[in-house]
């Protein structure tokens, strides 16, 4: 018997393995398939604990199943809540955020797609793009919830707080590191831009309103500026289609070395090709000629360049590396806006010179603005939220001194209707990326 046992042991030696290693050591018995595993340190710790508690782990099928079960463990995908409350950094655990829509440059710039030097330059800027993509993902998730849930009968304050609370939660608002890029615009009908409700505003959204939702998100000063128009009456469908088509045309035309005036000419041609019938009267959709898109710099929503939405004007060229908000406004009115209504939007002047302020309240208010917003736009509701009171006179003092600029609502003729669409893009070395693009628009 002893010689027979030795013979069996000899027959189980596997060719090509270290001397004395048996099949039992390499593969489980009872027909189970062998699996090559690299046990992690925590698996070793678990095995040691099993040995201490219940003896050595059994060989064979049960041990293999145990190891297989461990190696196949997958983390559960985190799903967003309704309303959105889970930060996008928790949903994307690897902290790599989705790219926007990629569009190749036109004509003479097509070579950039495959140029190795440009591709290497783009890879070096990954962190910068990733910050902007994080802000863009927050924008997409918040706005998609808002589009599903904004309904006639809601107050404008309820609407903007829904959007701003979602933004703060998803971007993990933290002072100048991340947060709201600028106050949420919800301009109605003939008001085209720069309206957000002040505290006490009781305006209610109506079925027949045309509401422009324009809000921003920033991560380390990289601002995503994107807007859409909400209507509930299908009579406005062609107005919205005109402005959306014009915005997409502007995006298509934008590129490195493209003249800003050429983008404007293309936008105007498309928008004016649309008509809309409202109340039995037909209107040609007009671009609002004194509203523009703009470049975006870190912590500066309106950079140094403007993107017109009509022909003529600025011959300046777009440049590699620049961020732009391509936004268009269409109107059934004159196609020209002026300031009106109570002001809500403000921003510290980017390159304001030092001014000796005599009013102590103005000094303390400026300290709050510098700390909480820097050069990012803010509104009176944000000051209220911080606990600031009786600041109207101090705020006017800062405006009069040229330290803070006010941005009153911009309106076309009463009785007219205006619409807006907007996206943020970056002119990368190899292609342009429309960062804020989503399934909705």
How are the SSEs ordered, and which strands pair?
Elements: H1 2-11, H2 23-26, H3 41-54, H4 61-71, H5 88-91, E1 101-103, H6 116-124, H7 126-149, H8 156-171, E2 178-188, E3 191-193, E4 211-219, E5 222-230, H9 237-253, H10 260-271, E6 275-278, E7 281-284, E8 286-287, E9 293-296, E10 306-307, E11 323-331, E12 338-339, E13 345-348, H11 360-372, E14 378-379, H12 380-385, H13 392-400, E15 404-407, E16 410-411, E17 418-427, E18 432-434
Antiparallel strand pairs: 1-18, 2-4, 3-16, 4-5, 6-7, 8-11, 9-10, 9-11, 11-17, 12-16, 13-14, 13-15, 17-18
Helix pairs in contact: 7-8, 9-10, 11-13
Summarize the structure.
By secondary structure, the protein is α+β, with helices and mostly antiparallel strands. The protein has 13 helices and 18 strands. The protein has helices at residues 2-11, 23-26, 41-54, 61-71, 88-91, 116-124, 126-149, 156-171, 237-253, 260-271, 360-372, 380-385, 392-400; strands at residues 101-103, 178-188, 191-193, 211-219, 222-230, 275-278, 281-284, 286-287, 293-296, 306-307, 323-331, 338-339, 345-348, 378-379, 404-407, 410-411, 418-427, 432-434.
């Amino acid at each position: 018997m002893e010689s027979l046992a030795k013979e069996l042991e000899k027959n189980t030696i596997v060719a090509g393995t270290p001397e004395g290693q048996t099949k039992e050591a390499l593969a489980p018995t009872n027909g189970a398939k062998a699996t090559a595993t690299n046990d992690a340190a925590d698996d070793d710790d678990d095995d040691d604990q099993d040995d201490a508690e219940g003896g050595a782990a059994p060989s064979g099928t049960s041990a293999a199943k145990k190891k297989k079960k461990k190696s196949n463990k997958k983390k559960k995908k985190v799903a967003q809540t309704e309303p959105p409350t889970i930060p996008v950094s928790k949903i994307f655990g690897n902290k790599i955020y989705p790219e926007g829509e990629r569009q190749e440059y036109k004509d003479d710039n097509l070579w950039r797609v495959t140029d190795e030097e440009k591709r290497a330059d783009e890879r070096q800027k990954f962190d910068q793009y990733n910050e902007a993509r994080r802000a863009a993902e927050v924008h997409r998730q918040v706005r998609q919830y808002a589009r599903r849930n904004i309904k006639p009968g809601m107050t404008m304050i309820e609407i903007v707080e829904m959007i701003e609370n979602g933004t703060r939660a998803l971007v993990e608002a933290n002072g100048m590191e991340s947060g709201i890029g600028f106050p949420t615009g919800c301009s109605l009908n003939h008001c085209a831009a720069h309206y957000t409700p002040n505290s006490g505003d009781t305006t209610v959204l109506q079925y027949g309103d045309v509401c422009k939702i324009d809000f921003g998100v920033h991560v380390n000063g990289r601002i995503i500026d994107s807007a859409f128009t909400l209507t509930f009456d299908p009579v406005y469908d062609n107005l919205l289609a005109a402005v959306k088509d014009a915005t997409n045309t502007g995006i298509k035309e934008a590129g490195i070395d493209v003249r800003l005036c050429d983008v404007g000419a293309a936008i105007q041609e498309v928008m004016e090709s649309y008509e809309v019938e409202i109340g039995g009267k037909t209107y040609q959709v007009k671009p609002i000629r004194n509203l523009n898109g703009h470049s975006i710099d870190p912590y500066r929503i309106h950079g140094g360049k403007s993107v017109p939405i009509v022909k003529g004007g600025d011959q300046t060229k777009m440049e590699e590396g620049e961020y732009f908000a391509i936004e268009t406004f269409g109107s059934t009115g004159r196609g020209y806006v002026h300031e009106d209504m109570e002001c809500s939007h403000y921003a510290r002047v980017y390159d304001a010179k030092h001014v000796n302020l005599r009013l102590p309240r103005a000094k303390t208010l400026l300290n709050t603005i510098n700390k909480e917003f820097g050069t990012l736009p803010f509104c009176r509701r944000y000051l209220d939220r911080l606990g600031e009171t009786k600041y109207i006179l101090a705020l006017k003092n800062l405006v009069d001194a040229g330290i803070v600029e006010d941005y009153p609502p911009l309106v076309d003729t009463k009785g007219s209707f205006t619409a807006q669409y907007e996206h943020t893009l970056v002119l990368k070395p190899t292609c342009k990326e429309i960062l804020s693009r989503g399934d909705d628009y």
